[in-house]
C-alpha cells in the first residue's frame, strides 16, 4: 500500500483516517476553505522531554516540497521590509504552482515538525499573512486550527490557511467534474440541488431544470450531455442560482467554478457517456451510487471506464434518507471491497466531518489512488455541506508547468458540439487541447469527409456563458464562427493553426488490451473507436504477430476507419467497443495521407 500511495502521514492502514489525537492535540475545522497539508505522525521519531506525562513522539507532516502550492511557516511576526518583500514573492510562486490557490501551515517547521505558536504570536502571524495576501490581491480563509501539546505545558496552535487569487490572465479558476453512475442513482437530482440551491422534494423536482429534451422530462432519465456550474467566491462561499439569476452573474461573483458534466446512466446511452469522458477532458469524476441498490447496473462499467482512462474519481453514496443506517454501511463496505481489489487498487477514505473533507481534498490531489467516499441525501440535505467543502478546496489536479508547456504549443481546439444561434451564426463547443486562442484568430477546421481543412475566423469566445477574450490550453469554451456553413462541420473535427500543417489518416495502429470478448477477436471485426473527441466505426485490418485475440491478451492492431479520415496523434488514449466487446490502448502509429488519397480511399 505504501508503495502505491505518495508518502503521507495519513496512510496508516487500508483506509485513511483524519488527523487527531495521534498528532498530539485536537483539530477544529473552520469555514469551507482550501487544500490542506495536514497529516498525522510520519512514523519518524525524535527524542523529546516528557513533561507532565505528555507523549514524547513529536507530530510531523511530510517535509515541505520546493514545488507545489503548500508552504510551511514557523511564524511571521514583525518581518523586516526586505523579509516581507521576499515573503510576498514566495506567496506569488505558491499561487502560481497552485494555479491561483495556496495553503499556508502556520506554526510548522520546514522539515514538517508541528511546533505551534502561542495565541499572540499566531495573531501576529495571521496579520502578516493578511498583509501579504493584500499585496498580491488575494483573499485568505482560515481552514482549521490544531492544538499541539507535545513537549510543552503552554497551549500552542497550528493554523491552516487557504490563500486564493484568480490569476490575472483568467476570469476564474476552473475545474471540470464528470458525473457518472447507474440510471436512477440521483445524478441529475444532486446536480440540481447543488446548482439551484434548493433541496429535492423526493420526486425529482430538482432535476427538471437540467433536462434538455422532452423525453428526458417524461422518463426522468438523462440521454444527452449537459453542463451545470457551481461557483465559490474568494471566501469559500457557494455561488449558485439561488442568489444569482444568470450564469453570467455566477461567473462574475465567483473566483472558482466547478463545471459538472452530467452524463447518461442508462446502458442504452453508454456511447454518449464514453464520448463525454474522452472528449471533454474532465479533471476528475464523481461516481454516484444509490445507497439502497449498491453497486448495480452500469456502476461497475462506469468505474471501469474511469480506471481505463485514468480519470481520478471520488464516490458519493446518495439516497441515505431512504435506508436504514445498516444498509448505508453495507453499501460503503461493498464499495471499499471493490476499490481494494487488484483491478482498482484504490485507498477508500470515508468522509464524515469537515476535517475529513479538508484532508480528503488534499490527499485526492496528491495521490491518484485515494478515493474519498461521501454519504448524503439530496432530500434531507444530510452531509451535503461536506461535499461543498471538498469541491471548494479541491486544488487543480494539473500543475502549472504542464499548463505552460501546453500553452507554448500551436493552437488545437476539439469540436465536440455544433449549434446555430440566431443573430450569431454557427457556434462550436469543445476544449482547447493546446496553445492559445483569441478573438479574430484565423484557423483551419477539418478533416472534412473528403480529407480537406477549411479556413475560418473566430468571431467571439464564451466560457460558462460569459464573454472571454482569450482561451488557454485546457479550458472549455464555445466559439462563434459567424456565417461559416454548419453543414461542413461535424463532431470529431479539430480547429488548428494553419502553421501546424495537420495530417489526417484513414489507417492507424494501436497497442491494445482486449478487456472482454465473448469468442475471439479476429481480422475483419468492426468496433466503434473512441480517441479523444473522435468516435467512428473502424475495421480490424491486421493483428500483428497473432491470428486472433482472447480476453486479457495484448497486441498491436491495425484499424481502418470506414466512413471518413480523422485527425489522430500518436500516444492518444484509445477505447473501443462493440456490444459486450471492450478494449483499451493507445495509438502507436498513424499512416498520414493527403486529401486526394483520402478521397480515393473513402470512395469519393
From TrEMBL:
<dbReference type="InterPro" id="IPR009000">
    <property type="entry name" value="Transl_B-barrel_sf"/>
</dbReference>
<comment type="similarity">
    <text>Belongs to the TRAFAC class translation factor GTPase superfamily. Classic translation factor GTPase family. EF-Tu/EF-1A subfamily.</text>
</comment>
<dbReference type="InterPro" id="IPR050055">
    <property type="entry name" value="EF-Tu_GTPase"/>
</dbReference>
<dbReference type="GO" id="GO:0005525">
    <property type="term" value="F:GTP binding"/>
</dbReference>
<feature type="compositionally biased region" description="Basic residues">
    <location>
        <begin position="42"/>
        <end position="52"/>
    </location>
</feature>
<dbReference type="Pfam" id="PF00009">
    <property type="entry name" value="GTP_EFTU"/>
</dbReference>
<dbReference type="GO" id="GO:0003924">
    <property type="term" value="F:GTPase activity"/>
</dbReference>
<keyword id="KW-0547">Nucleotide-binding</keyword>
<dbReference type="InterPro" id="IPR000795">
    <property type="entry name" value="T_Tr_GTP-bd_dom"/>
</dbReference>
<dbReference type="GO" id="GO:1904678">
    <property type="term" value="F:alpha-aminoacyl-tRNA binding"/>
</dbReference>
<feature type="region of interest" description="Disordered">
    <location>
        <begin position="1"/>
        <end position="66"/>
    </location>
</feature>
<dbReference type="InterPro" id="IPR009001">
    <property type="entry name" value="Transl_elong_EF1A/Init_IF2_C"/>
</dbReference>
<keyword id="KW-0342">GTP-binding</keyword>
<feature type="compositionally biased region" description="Gly residues">
    <location>
        <begin position="31"/>
        <end position="41"/>
    </location>
</feature>
<dbReference type="GO" id="GO:0070966">
    <property type="term" value="P:nuclear-transcribed mRNA catabolic process, no-go decay"/>
</dbReference>
<dbReference type="GO" id="GO:0003746">
    <property type="term" value="F:translation elongation factor activity"/>
</dbReference>
<dbReference type="GO" id="GO:0072344">
    <property type="term" value="P:rescue of stalled ribosome"/>
</dbReference>
<dbReference type="InterPro" id="IPR035531">
    <property type="entry name" value="GTPBP1-like"/>
</dbReference>
<feature type="domain" description="Tr-type G">
    <location>
        <begin position="172"/>
        <end position="400"/>
    </location>
</feature>
<dbReference type="GO" id="GO:0042802">
    <property type="term" value="F:identical protein binding"/>
</dbReference>
<protein>
    <recommendedName>
        <fullName>GTP-binding protein 2</fullName>
    </recommendedName>
</protein>
<dbReference type="InterPro" id="IPR027417">
    <property type="entry name" value="P-loop_NTPase"/>
</dbReference>
Amino acid at each position: 500500500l505504501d508503495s502505491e500511495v505518495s508518502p503521507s502521514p495519513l496512510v496508516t492502514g487500508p483506509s485513511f483516517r483524519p488527523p487527531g489525537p495521534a498528532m498530539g492535540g485536537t483539530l477544529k475545522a473552520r469555514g469551507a476553505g482550501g487544500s490542506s497539508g495536514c497529516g498525522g505522525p510520519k512514523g519518524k521519531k525524535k527524542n523529546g522531554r516528557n513533561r507532565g506525562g505528555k507523549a514524547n513522539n513529536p507530530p510531523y507532516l511530510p517535509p515541505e516540497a520546493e514545488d507545489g502550492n503548500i508552504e510551511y511557516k514557523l511564524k511571521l511576526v514583525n518581518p523586516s521590509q526586505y523579509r516581507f518583500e521576499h515573503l510576498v514573492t514566495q506567496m506569488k510562486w505558491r499561487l502560481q504552482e497552485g494555479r491561483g490557490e495556496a495553503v499556508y501551515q502556520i506554526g510548522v517547521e520546514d522539515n514538517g515538525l508541528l511546533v505551534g505558536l502561542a495565541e499572540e504570536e499566531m495573531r501576529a502571524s495571521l496579520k502578516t499573512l493578511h498583509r501579504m495576501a493584500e499585496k498580491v490581491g488575494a483573499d485568505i480563509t482560515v481552514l482549521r486550527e490544531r492544538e499541539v501539546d507535545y513537549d510543552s505545558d503552554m497551549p500552542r496552535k497550528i493554523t491552516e490557511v487557504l490563500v486564493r487569487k484568480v490569476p490575472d490572465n483568467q476570469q476564474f479558476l476552473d475545474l471540470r467534474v464528470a458525473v457518472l453512475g447507474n440510471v436512477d442513482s440521483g445524478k441529475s437530482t444532486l446536480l440540481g440541488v447543488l446548482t439551484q440551491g434548493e433541496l429535492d422534494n423526493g420526486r425529482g423536482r430538482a432535476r427538471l431544470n437540467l433536462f434538455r429534451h422532452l423525453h428526458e422530462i417524461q422518463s426522468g432519465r438523462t440521454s444527452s450531455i449537459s453542463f451545470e456550474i457551481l461557483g465559490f467566491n474568494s471566501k469559500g462561499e457557494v455561488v449558485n442560482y439561488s442568489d444569482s439569476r444568470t450564469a453570467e452573474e455566477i461567473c462574475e461573483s465567483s473566483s472558482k467554478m466547478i463545471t459538472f458534466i452530467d452524463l447518461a446512466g442508462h446502458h442504452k446511452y453508454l456511447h454518449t457517456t464514453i464520448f463525454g469522458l474522452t472528449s471533454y477532458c474532465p479533471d476528475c469524476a464523481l461516481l454516484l451510487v444509490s445507497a439502497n441498490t449498491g453497486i448495480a447496473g452500469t456502476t461497475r462499467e462506469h468505474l471501469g471506464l474511469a480506471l481505463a482512462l485514468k480519470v481520478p474519481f471520488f464516490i458519493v453514496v446518495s439516497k441515505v434518507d431512504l435506508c436504514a443506517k445498516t444498509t448505508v454501511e453495507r453499501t460503503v463496505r461493498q464499495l471499499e471491497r471493490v476499490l481494494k481489489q487488484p483491478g482498482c487498487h484504490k485507498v477508500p477514505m470515508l468522509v464524515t466531518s469537515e476535517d475529513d473533507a479538508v484532508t480528503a481534498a488534499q490527499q485526492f490531489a496528491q495521490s491518484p489512488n485515494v478515493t474519498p467516499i461521501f454519504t448524503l441525501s439530496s432530500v434531507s440535505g444530510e452531509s451535503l455541506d461536506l461535499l461543498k467543502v471538498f469541491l471548494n478546496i479541491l486544488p487543480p489536479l494539473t500543475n502549472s508547468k504542464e499548463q505552460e508547456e501546453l500553452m507554448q504549443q500551436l493552437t488545437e481546439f476539439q469540436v465536440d458540439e455544433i449549434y446555430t444561434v440566431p443573430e450569431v451564426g454557427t457556434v462550436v463547443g469543445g476544449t482547447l487541447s493546446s496553445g492559445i486562442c483569441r478573438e479574430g484568430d484565423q484557423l483551419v477546421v477539418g478533416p472534412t469527409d473528403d480529407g480537406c481543412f477549411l479556413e475560418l475566423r473566430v468571431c467571439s469566445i464564451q466560457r460558462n456563458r460569459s464573454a472571454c477574450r482569450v482561451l488557454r490550453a485546457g479550458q472549455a469554451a464555445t466559439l462563434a464562427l459567424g456565417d461559416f456553413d454548419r453543414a461542413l462541420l461535424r463532431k470529431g473535427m479539430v480547429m488548428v493553426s494553419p502553421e501546424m500543417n495537420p495530417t489526417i489518416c484513414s489507417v492507424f495502429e494501436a497497442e491494445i488490451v482486449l478487456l472482454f470478448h465473448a469468442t475471439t477477436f479476429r481480422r475483419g471485426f468492426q468496433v466503434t473507436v473512441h480517441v479523444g473527441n473522435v468516435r467512428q466505426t473502424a475495421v480490424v485490418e491486421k493483428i500483428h504477430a497473432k491470428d486472433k485475440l482472447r480476453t486479457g491478451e495484448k497486441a498491436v492492431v491495425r484499424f481502418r476507419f470506414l466512413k471518413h479520415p480523422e485527425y489522430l496523434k500518436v500516444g492518444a488514449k484509445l477505447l473501443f467497443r462493440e456490444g459486450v466487446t471492450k478494449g483499451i490502448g493507445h495509438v502507436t502509429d498513424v499512416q498520414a495521407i493527403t486529401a486526394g488519397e483520402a478521397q480515393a480511399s473513402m470512395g469519393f
